[in-house]
Amino acid sequence: MYVDVGDLNLALKDYNKALEYNPENVGLFFDKGTVLFYLGEYDKAIHSYEKFLSREPRDVDALYFNGLAYHFLGKNKTAQKLIDEALTLIEKSDDLYPDLCNAKGEILFDLESYPDAIDYFNKAVESDPASFIALYNTGRAFYEMGELKYALKYIEDALKIEPKEWDVLNYKGLILMDMGVNEDAIECFDKIIKLHPIYFPAWYNKGVALKQLGRTEEALDHFDQAIKLLLDKKPGMTRGMCLKSSK
What we know:
Pfam family, one: TPR_1
Oligomer: single chain
CATH class of the largest domain: Mainly Alpha
Number of strands: 0
Largest sheet: none
InterPro entries: TPR-like_helical_dom_sf, TPR_rpt, Ycf3/AcsC/BcsC/TPR_MFPF
Structural class: mainly alpha
Protein name: TPR-repeat-containing protein
Shape: globular
CATH topology of the largest domain: Serine Threonine Protein Phosphatase 5, Tetratricopeptide repeat
Keywords: Repeat, TPR repeat
Strand content: under 5%
TPR repeats: 1-25, 26-59, 98-131, 132-165, 200-233
């Protein structure tokens, strides 16, 4: 309930209080772990999930979320073990199957096993053709392999499902830049800026595309805007750093 309404901190307090009164209710550890997961407290989420899994080792949802938590911490070998275990316990017809396949693909992507990652992303799409994230991830994997035409195809398929998704639009722009189609890339970045003007990668990437077209002053204006949006995260960012990294 709390995850749906977004009041995660209140939920965490309530689950902690419930566990004080009823520490044997193992389901509370799963619920607490999920709240911690959505708060980005992955180490603490893992601790809670593993208490739950010590009593319910075949629970697919817990294996999935625990695997994702390890993945987000960069601990991909452990993440892969958990996701693989979940996949052995689930039918292909289960609603969670495409999510598990996508998670396995993302782990393989991070391990730079791109062809294997694509196999799992394809399994996710076969199970759920509306899974734009699996299509997007397939495009990313082809991009890393230098297969730009295939990458563009899958990114465009993802955009047919979610035409306003910023990260997908940004990736399309990056692919178009690598293909030398800078004007079309700029159109993608402009769409993002219109939809979500605080998305700094769009400002930076548009600056790079403008610089490649020789429109240096316009590029500098966009780098300046990207810097303003980045100052809280990287206070030392300068125009020169943008120009250097865009070469």
